[in-house]
Design a protein that fits this description.
Length: about 400
């Protein structure tokens, strides 16, 4: 068992909490604050125990100087202040005298939020490559490190693995809960067990299939993920999302698991991703050259339903269509209806998939909505997660 925040006396200690505040922000406005809300339990507990609370998080991917304005955590500090009813001091730097002074001046129960950890990526990807000096420096700012960012638990970054390598550490309540819920799927899941995969991060996620297929009875594939498989199966996919380097992998998977990998038989197509644009319902051998497949069709939903109806365990990552755009939301919405009408233990993971659950009002009907997409997939694969492994074991 891993140590948790409860295993430490936090009173008067500087406690660094790595949160997942990777929320959608447009023009300074937070579009979905559910990740912030889910981190409150750990922050509130640390304050109640009398800790000096130092919060860190990444936000988006920071590649250029211009990205800094788009990906500042300042709006999160403001939102957090309201939710905690306590001023959260925002430090617009990731290192330096100003930050160190602010921490030195903290009183018990004070809260500080440090700027986006990925600003350090502008200088040789120090955060994302777990630069040893950076991890050591951040660790030097606190006494105890608590990892409460499940979304990045599968990454080896300076702000998780790096800090944890240097000071006493444990898990926050959010990560503890995620692990408890996901373990239901790794430790003898009730069968039949079906996984639904979709979404747009195809190259990131397609590789997990070879591992997951040995654990689940079926994998239903929708969303952007489906089209590389459909192309590998010989269909013309028009301008749909396709990962060319993965075609031979997909072909091999389809040959090895013809009865376990289930692909769409029809899709909704259009020539642009725009609200209420003209759409077509096509069988997968009818997609035209200038069209993109942007949702699964009604016949595919019928097929998927047959695989899901009598399931005891269902995991879903990645929307099966561009659910944010009017005209392509039906597949994702109907799939929520189908899975929430089964008797299965239902676990849905991923930032966008979770957002779809909220958008269509299904979040309370699902057994567990995970904050991590890639992270939950990696956990289910059973591969080693260094940022989790490094956390101290209970004696
Ligand atoms: P998650 O955040 O849940 O892990 P992803 O980030 O992998 O999921 O993918 C979510 C995105 O996938 C959504 O923004 C959705 O619009 C997009 N998407 C779903 N289906 C398709 C498709 N057929 N073509 C292109 N994008 C798609
Ligand atoms: Mg996403």
């Amino acid at each position: 068992m891993k140590k948790t925040i409860k295993d430490y006396d936090l009173s008067g200690k500087k406690v660094i909490i790595r949160c997942d505040f990777n929320v959608p922000i447009e023009n300074g406005i937070i579009k979905d604050e559910s990740r912030i809300k889910k981190s409150l339990k750990t922050i509130r507990y640390a304050r109640k125990q009398g800790a000096k609370v130092i919060l860190m998080s990444h936000l988006g991917r920071v590649k250029t100087i211009e990205d800094k304005e788009k990906y500042t955590l300042k709006p999160v500090a403001e939102r957090l202040s309201k939710l905690l009813r306590k001023k959260v001091k925002f430090i617009n730097e990731t290192r330096g005298q100003n930050l160190e002074n602010a921490i030195d001046n903290m009183k018990d129960k004070d809260v500080i939020l440090i700027e986006n950890t990925r600003f350090e990526d502008l200088d040789g990807k120090k955060e994302s490559n777990n630069d040893k000096e950076l991890g050591k420096y951040w660790a030097s700012l606190g006494d105890i490190f608590i990892n409460d960012a499940f979304g990045t638990i599968h990454r080896s970054h300076a702000s998780n693995l790096g800090i944890a390598s240097n000071i006493p550490n444990g898990l926050g309540f959010l990560v503890e809960e995620e692990i408890k819920k996901l373990t239901k799927l790794t430790n003898k899941p009730r069968k039949p067990y079906t996984i639904i995969l979709g979404g747009a991060k195809v190259s990131d996620k397609i590789g997990v299939i070879s591992n997951l297929i040995t654990k689940a009875d079926y994998i239903l594939i929708g969303g952007g993920m489906a089209f590389t498989f459909l192309k590998a199966a010989g269909f013309n996919i028009g301008s749909s999302l396709c990962e060319r380097e993965k075609l031979s992998y997909c072909k091999e998977m389809l040959e090895n698991y013809p009865d376990k990998l289930i692909l769409p038989i029809d899709v909704i197509t259009a020539t642009e991703i725009k609200d209420n644009t003209k759409t077509h319902e096509r069988f997968i051998n009818e997609i035209e050259e200038d069209e993109m497949g942007l949702d699964i069709g009604p016949r595919t939903l019928e097929v998927f339903k047959q695989y899901l109806d009598d399931c005891k365990t269902i995991f879903w990552n990645g929307p099966v269509g561009c659910f944010e755009t009017k005209g392509f939301e039906n597949g994702t919405k109907e799939l929520f209806e189908i899975i929430t009408n089964t008797k299965a233990y239902t676990l849905v993971g991923g930032g966008d998939t979770a957002r779809a659950a909220t958008t269509f009002n299904y979040e309370n009907k699902i057994s567990h909505v995970s904050t991590g997409g890639g992270a939950s997939l990696a956990f289910l694969e059973g591969i080693e997660l260094p940022a989790l492994k490094i956390i101290n074991e209970k004696k």
